[in-house]
Amino acid sequence: MRVCALERMNGRNEINLAIRRICAYGRSATRQSAIHRRHRPSLPDTARQRHTRRFLPFCTRLIDVPIGDVVYRIRALKDRQQFHDPDRTAERAGVPAALWSLFGQLWPAGVELARESLSYRIDGRRILEIGCGLGLSSLVLKQRGADITASDRHPLANEFLTHNARLNGLKPIPYNDLAWERPEDRAIGKFDLIVGSDVLYERDHIAALLNLIRNYATPEAEVLISDPGRGQCGPFAASMLGVGFTLSSRGYDIPREHRRNAGRMMRFER
User: pTM value?
Assistant: First the structure.
């Protein structure tokens, strides 16, 4: 009986040791996985010199997005809880903490704009994407061979745009840190087509966006805005009609929120 008890004890000890080893391995693997998830977007050479040995404390993820016949790989923020603005650069640029992570998400209105980007004419046209965020529409247009310039106000937008272009085997996309309410910067030039998605959050965005269009649109320019059904959509359309544009629009679904025909794809021409 003593031998049997000892054997049972030794068996239990071996099992407990195995469990401890598995748990230790699991904790190690979790730490390694967390390290890999905390990916720092690739930086241009000039930015890399400025940020030498600096580790950005936010998590990202890879998303595969089919647009037409091409699947685009997009580096996005892991979720809306990510935040990193230690020197208040984003805050000074007009991006409050509550909105800091929004640029790094893939939104339904942005995906719909990217799909729309497959169909419109690009030959001989300068195109500006406003509020580009992760740059999906700019990537689609670059893939088509368009003369596309991306713009945003978020201090990390250009880094993610550059990284996502590399992920998809595309050349760098010209970028401007473009504040809508500023006076015209003549060095930027004029554009034949201005596109944007989910850019009408607040009432004062309408006047600011009208100012940008006045500054950077050619006399014959088109403006294409993809809106998920926010409250500023109607007032913005009325303001555009008031300055000489005509409007054609169509609805689209927001599957994530189970809202049918809630989004609006608005095309303004003059």
Answer: 0.78
Kindly state the tokens that stand for 100: 């800091």
Q: Among 40-49, 68-77, 181-190, 199-208, whose mean pLDDT is lowest? A: 40-49
Q: For residues 56 and 231, what is the distance between their CA atoms, to the nearest angstrom? A: 35
Pick the CATH number of 47-269 from 3.40.50.150, 1.20.810.10, 3.40.640.10, 3.40.525.10: 3.40.50.150
Buried b (16+ CB within 10 A) or exposed e, 200-217: beeeebbebbbbbbebbb
Task: Find the mean pLDDT for residues 141-165.
Answer: 97
76 three-class SS = strand
User: Tell me, what amino acid is at 69?
Assistant: D
